[in-house]
Amino acid sequence: MMKEWATVISWQNGIALLRCEPHSGCGSCNARSGCGSHLLNELGPKSAHQLQIPISQPLEPGQKVEVGISEGSLLRSASLVYLTPLFGLIAGGSLFQALFITDAFTAIGAILGAGLGFLLARQLATRIEGQSDYQPTILQIGLPPTAIRIQQE
Asked: Does a structural domain hold residue 29?
């Protein structure tokens, strides 16, 4: 199970809107100045991801929740998104290479195959979108921010 903590933005009618802020894979490393992964993370957008998850328990804005998704469904989704267009690119290029024998037509076939692979991946993704295996679930709910009180002596 892949787990990540998220912050509640709002909760209405059994639907929680959550914000997950992306973290770099090497957040605990102190070699940030020489790390290529850290530099790539700095180049990317700093936007947070938002999720809508059904939950019957009322939540307060600012409350932390732990969200999880199974590794198997995550790997299947990644395979669908990356491998389907790649297979289309290779198949389209190979087919046009065999039919037309020129490099220009091979490139056109590869582009058409990749495009068809993207369309197929999109179609398959809409079919599996509603399945519960592919939906994130709330694993733990933290205390609301109003429940924490600090007493000074």
From this structure: yes
